Amino acid sequence: MADKMWAGRFKAALDKEADDFNSSIHFDSRMWREDITGSIAHAKMLSKCGIISDADRDAIIAGLEAIYAELEAGTMAIDTDCEDIHMFVEKVLTERIGDAGKRLHTARSRNDQVALDLRMYMRTAAAEVRELATALCRTLTDKAEEYRDTIMPGYTHLQRAQPITFGHHLMAYAMMLLRDIGRIKDAEARLDASPIGCCALAGTTYATDRRFEAELLGFSEICMNSLDGVSDRDFALELMSAFSVMMMHLSRLSEEIILWSSWEFGFVELSDSFTTGSSIMPQKKNSDIAELVRGKTGRVYGDLMSLLTAMKGLPLAYNKDMQEDKEAIFDATDTVKKCLSVFAPMIETMKAKPEAMARAAKRGFINATDLADYMVGKGIPFRTAYKITGELVAYCIDKDCVLEDLTIDEFRKFSDTLDEGLYEAIDLRACVDRRQSEGGTAPVCVDAQIEWVRAKLAQ
Ligand code: ARG
């Protein structure tokens, strides 16, 4: 491999297997846009600082722009014999423009170059993920509005607990998504510092202008320590951890959708466009898309874990281990984007089945708390009311009926404070409408939540 850019100090060529093993071009070639854009800014900075001539700068820029255009048009193939995308672009440029091309790598190193490319790539990816998450959050909010009055049992321990509305339940996920978007934004703010000009590790003897170059590339800050700038990948870890938390949320909603779509629950029906059949059981309608999102969550966690683990023992500054960052980062980003893209229309086309929800809400004594609260209103201490209600529930279980089925005489056997007003108190609709504490399940409160999320999304 006499044509390696670093071949000067070597007598023997790199072993073929080792060369393949060492190379990253198969996966880092997707950063060609960032690489070329970064190099154009670098050439501008070098000429502004008098390190290269204006003529060389113009030749470099024209050469890079031509490569960019050809790659964009698909008329140039990326030569996978090159070690990485940075080497490839420099090689083609130099073949085309000669010495000027050889001057491009003055006052930089691949270490700061790759850190820059990755930050630029992740900056775009983060914005795209945020956009998709925002769209999903809007969809959830719209669905919530559609079902603001639809009563369903709310659960704890997967046991029926208290009546809520389906809109309220969906808004819980909208809140989570909103925080996920916030976490991505936070990570984007810290990512917004340019590492270019840190060079290999120690900075450079050339009188460069890192801030000028950063500004050209749309960064508001520069990495203030050159070792740090080339050594850390925390910006990618932060984004991947934000992605992981978001995937955890999507996975929980997926799990609920899978449960709700079962015959056991029957609370929702997914559109045929987001479900699949079985190759043998003709009756089946499976929630594969939701299941896959749940499954892919593990994959995104794995990407985060693999980079965390790759980084944990590395002495400063750059180590080749860090080349392992890219596949993890790209996979996490691709996966999250795909999941969000398919999730929003799946939610949009999902239909609730209010009768099934109402049927489930009827059983399970989810108005028991309300009965106890009613007794409290009659002057009974809550603990006593709680105990009496428990006895009433046990009585109903024996009789295989619900509280609403008992006559007033039966109720009064348990407490003579009870009167006809209790029936209105334990009516499920009334139970929901009365829960008007801020954030509560009453439709008016869910309306306020919807409005709040929409206002946040509009910011
Ligand atoms: N392909 C390398 C990576 O992705 C680029 C940086 C290489 N730097 C070096 N000194 N070997 O990390």
Please give the structural blueprint.
Blueprint: H1 16-22, H2 25-28, H3 32-48, H4 54-73, H5 85-97, H6 99-103, H7 110-146, E1 151-156, E2 159-165, H8 166-191, E3 193-194, H9 210-216, E4 221-222, H10 226-231, H11 234-260, E5 268-269, H12 288-311, H13 325-348, E6 351-352, H14 354-362, H15 368-377, H16 382-399, H17 408-414, H18 421-425, H19 428-434, H20 443-458
Parallel strand pairs: 3-4
Antiparallel strand pairs: 1-2, 5-6
The structure holds arginine (ARG).
Characterise this structure.
The structure is a single chain. The protein has helices at 16-22, 25-28, 32-48, 54-73, 85-97, 99-103, 110-146, 166-191, 210-216, 226-231, 234-260, 288-311, 325-348, 354-362, 368-377, 382-399, 408-414, 421-425, 428-434, 443-458, and strands spanning 151-156, 159-165, 193-194, 221-222, 268-269, 351-352. The chain has 459 residues and is mostly helical. It has a two-stranded antiparallel sheet with strand order 1-2. The mean pLDDT is 96. Bound molecules: arginine. Arginine binds at residues 24, 28, 84, 110-111, 114, 318, 320, 322-323.
